[in-house]
Amino acid sequence: MTVNLYDLSPEGLAGLLAAWGEPRFRANQVREWLYDKRVSSFDEMRNLPKKLRDRLKTETTLGVLAPISEQASHDGTLKRLYRLPDGQMIESVLMPYDDDRRTACISTQAGCAMGCVFCATGQMGFARHLTAAEIFEQAVLFARELEAQGERLSNVVLMGMGEPFHNYDESLAAVRRLMDDLGIGARHITVSTVGLAPMIRRFADEGLQVRLAISLHAATDEERSALLPVNKRWPLAELMVACREYVEKTGRRISFEWTAIQGENDTPEQARALGKLLKGLLCHVNIIPLNPTGGYAHGPSAADRVDRFAAILGECGVPATVRVRRGIDINAGCGQLKAAVLNKQADRSE
């Protein structure tokens, strides 16, 4: 059975090489090639004996993600489609910014079980959880390519396909790998959730400086349950208790994501309701005009409505900003990761 080297802990790699009769320092050399130099082939591991490199080629792999296609947006955003060993598909996105940030948006599941009505991934349903190595490898590949261009991966957001807290253990293991093996600072990593209250409490106990973002999108249970079915399991009252406990325990600010839908959740009344809901909480609201998906009929809020919404939140003492949409022309924006996956699966079934 072929071993994925990204699956191995330092101890696991040392154990594998020891079983092959290799001295312990070889494991450190291999890890240096994997994580410091981020090579893409065993032939680049020049200080390893050829016999060891040949055996590594035969019995191990440098990751499991097979790139199928990629698209580039006019704003520089890059979206890539990968096939997993079992045939499942996932997408990852790299977003460049004018301030030299390079942010990878990575997936934690193939599909998603949360069923948010305006999200393309939610519309496709759930296939399976990703392993920590599959999550981590998405960032490694972008980091490797950026380094070859004289740049560096500066930020990672777990906001791609899937709900990270539904795949909690593997997602958190991947986060720790991002910090330990890729050197991404905790404050440059964001985990996004639709509001799994017990997992928010658990996350508060991790002792990490990682950022937390919560998809909110409505300020009443009736409206939120219509958009996010998970609200029926953990309604706003329970969610907000978990959020306040998180802030009290960690001292860290929460970001709330608000997808602005024309005529649905962008009224002054809803802005005031949101301001009341979040009053006194250390938080920030990111307002994101809806990104179009084929399975949802409504459109994004007009700019003047979004600006008014943000202004009212400010009057309520809740800081808010309007996020610039990126990669919309290639369906790489928030909530859009699905279409290419389904098309590729359809192609394979014909």
Summarize the entry for a quick read.
38% of the residues lie in helices and 19% in strands. It is an alpha/beta fold and 350 residues long.
Protein model, in words:
- This protein has 350 residues and is an alpha/beta fold.
- It is built from twelve helices and 14 strands.
- The chain has a ten-stranded mixed beta sheet.
- The longest helix is centred in the middle third of the chain and has 17 residues, at 132-148.
- The relative contact order is 0.11.
Q: How are the secondary structure elements laid out?
A:
Elements: E1 3-4, H1 10-19, H2 25-36, H3 50-59, E2 60-61, E3 66-72, E4 78-83, E5 89-96, E6 102-105, E7 109-111, H4 120-124, E8 126-129, H5 132-148, E9 155-158, H6 168-180, E10 189-193, H7 197-204, E11 211-215, H8 221-227, H9 236-250, E12 254-260, H10 268-278, E13 283-289, H11 303-315, E14 320-322, H12 339-349
Parallel strand pairs: 1-2, 6-9, 9-10, 10-11, 11-12, 12-13, 13-14
Antiparallel strand pairs: 3-4, 4-5, 5-6, 7-8
Order of helices and strands: EHHHEEEEEEHEHEHEHEHHEHEHEH
Let me know the number of strands.
14
- The helix count comes to 12
For the biggest sheet, the summary is:
10 strands, mixed
> Biggest sheet: strands side by side, in what order?
3-4-5-6-9-10-11-12-13-14
Average pLDDT, all residues: 90
CATH architecture of the largest domain: Alpha-Beta Barrel
Indicate how many domains the architecture comprises: 2
Helix content: 25-40%
CATH topology heading of the largest domain: TIM Barrel
SS-based class? alpha/beta
End-to-end distance, in Å?
30 Å
